[in-house]
Amino acid sequence: MEGSRGMAERALTDARIGALETPSGKGAGDENFPVGSFLIRRDLRPHIHAFYNFARRADDIADNPGLAPNDKVRRLDRMAEILDGAPGNDAPSAVAMHASLQETGGTSQHCHDVLRAFRMDATKLRYRDWGDLMEYCRYSAAPVGRQLLDLHGEARDTWPASDALCSALQVLNHLQDCGDDYRALDRVYLPEEDLAACHVSVDALDANRSSAGLRTVIDRLLDGTDRLIEQARSLPRGVRSWGLRCECAVIVTLAAKLSGRLRRGDPLAMRVKLSKADFLAALLSGLWRGSIG
Q1: CATH of domain 125-293
Q2: Residues 178-198 pLDDT 10s
């Protein structure tokens, strides 16, 4: 029979399980793109979900307004340790990701890259220009596509188009959430150079509708995003796996659709997002495009 000391120690251990992670409640259904859909090989889906959950939990830490920046970094560093095999159950998503990497023999670099981005989120509140923002996307977004491509054994010459697509999706998400990010976290991804050129203060993000100047900034960022989407249109043709090729085509279509929605909608006045009909139309288009190569 377990003694009182043993029970206390076990209770303390149980309390520590998952203590690093601070789930926001967001999941794959909240994304602008499919996560491990039926188009993906069945044997790879658990590994895709492991990577997504790892990134989601790290993102939740970085976006938690109740944590101090140094605490966020500490938690992310601990996730990195567990990812690399350190003992402990205080970050279940990192434990699962480590197991996934052991099973697939994949590199942990993509996971470490996203952790680098979330450390930036914990400490960096402003971005100088488009290049500075793209450097952030190199670590926050590009590793997602690279992980997916690597799992399928695709050639690395697909990376540039994939990077462009993932970066486009990241900027679109920033624009969707620009008001919330500013109000909750004082974080602004809209480059200071563009804001200054349009004579816009970050305080404009606290309004319930976009000013003319802020609208110009948003459109400038959408111009850059549309150029990324154009670069990404070559991605499906370079992917050998039929299912992944179709999924890439679906995501390119969704990115273009969301960009158009943000051209016409005001992210401060409403939640600009894709509809179920948009996803269905993109799926049918992606299946057709994937089939013709």
Answers
A1: 1.10.600.10
A2: 999 999 999 999 999 999 999
